[in-house]
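[Automated response] Your request has been received and processed.

Submitted sequence:
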Amino acid sequence: MRIGLLTEGGYPYVSGDARLWCDRLVRGLGQHEFDIYALSRSERQEDEGWIELPPQVSRVRTAPLWTAEDDGVVHGRRARRRFADAYAELAAVVCAGPSGTGAAGSPEGSETADGVEADRFGSALYALAELARDEGGLVGALRSEVAVRALERACRAPGALRPARTARVPDLLAVAAHIERALRPLSLDWYEDDGLGSVDLCHAAAGGSAALPGLLAHHFSGVPLLVTEYGVQLRAHYLASTQAPPAVRSLLAAFHGRLASEVYRRASFITPGNTHARRWQERCGADRAKLRTVYPGMDASRFAEVGENPEGAAGADPDTLVWVGRIEPAKDLISLLHAFAEIRREEPKTRLRIVGAAAGAEGTAYLGHCKALAAQLFPDEAEGVHAVGDNPVSFEEIGGPEVPTLAEAYAAGAVVVLSSVVEGFPISLVEAMFCGRATVSTDVGAVVEVIGGTGLVVPPRNPRALAEACVALLRDPERRERLGAAARARALELFTVEQNITAFHGIYLEIVSHSPVRRVVVDEAGEPLPFGVPAEAHVPGRWTESRLMAAGRPRWAAGAPVRATVTVPAPQVVPAGEGVR
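Generated structure:
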């Protein structure tokens, strides 16, 4: 089958998010063809280029989400009226307060009201999409004074959100600019019959703007949509807008909430990466019958040497704790250092190795704060009057002389610690499990789901509980070895690349089997061609590849090939600027 893979700031860019699992998915499903539709997040990302693409990638089309030049489209009076009506409806739904409980105060009344509002949002969104297709783009219109005035009227209307009523002109301009950026995919030329309209399935690697092209392909051409979220976009938008004024924060939360609900309503299946993401999706209106949890696939081979070591955790330094990850405030290394102070009182020989690089300017400042606290809590100690002092806490980076590889970082200690206060899917925890290490983690995000009883879990922001759990494992080497072996077995069963590819392959076939081809196949004369799409189109295998025959093509194969099943031998690159009209 032919799959349109939709990404935002990810695959195939070198610095893209989720590029690894997308690349592994494409390479692992060599029997299918992939068309990549990528939205870039910055000019720097585009300049860094792409990773090497496998041969099953037939085409790559890109468009910048970080900038959009005025499309120069001049709308006539009728088009301006269509835009004003559609945008006003969209703004009214976004600014409206939460629905009540109906006339009778029943939950059924609330669900009905929510359904009506969702229909209004969807109708307004598709009206804007149809206008963009008819007129050649909406970049200028979405930035216009008409859009800002529509938002202002919606904020002042009865029943509007309370924070929205206080919105001032700068707030309205900020909200309008954000909505324009999120809706830039409406102005792309990706939805014709030779674009997303020709694929058998759209697979969005994230929600939000990444899934919007798939939503429009479903609307225009009936193409089924699969949405995968390893990090819920709506939650990310909530966290990103915490510093915004209350009116802006409220309106953007309402907009992204409505967009997420529409994506979940129209998707054939939704694949969260863990139960934590699944709960978010259910609260946003995702139907439980559509949800299929697919854990991220990780490369276990990098950790095989450490994990398969006959000595297991017994071969590591029994007095060393290891922390691995990006250094940033959400990792709460401050609590870890205070916990380590208590551990040292119980086990004076214990050492703590913090391995990782700072994440941005905020992470650099946080790293400096952590180093200062470590120097204060643990002055350089010496065993005797003639020995050189040494701090029991070390800060290191992968690739250094003492920690050349990631696997060796986990192999350096007997216990791996995770102290985060915010976490999605804990990748470092899974890596430690691949290495057969016992772990102590805080109960955040998907930690409990991942660890599954093969490690110790404590409440976040509780240094005493963290210290007690670490001391318990440091004093019991047999327990460490049992937990490490169980953790490795669990990780190999649930979190490998192979299980991820197998799961998506099955979901692809299930979606296509329930989504009959709606396109009419015609012959050279333009007449409908009976049995133009054979039953074999839904059977695994590369049925669409072209074959060279010495005696020429048989008569039953005469006629123009169907666009949806043409194999393009080499990737066709569309420059970033050509994706927007």
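Summary generated for your ticket: The longest strand covers residues 33-40. The CA atoms of residues 454 and 487 lie 5 Å apart.
If you did not submit this request, please reply to this message.
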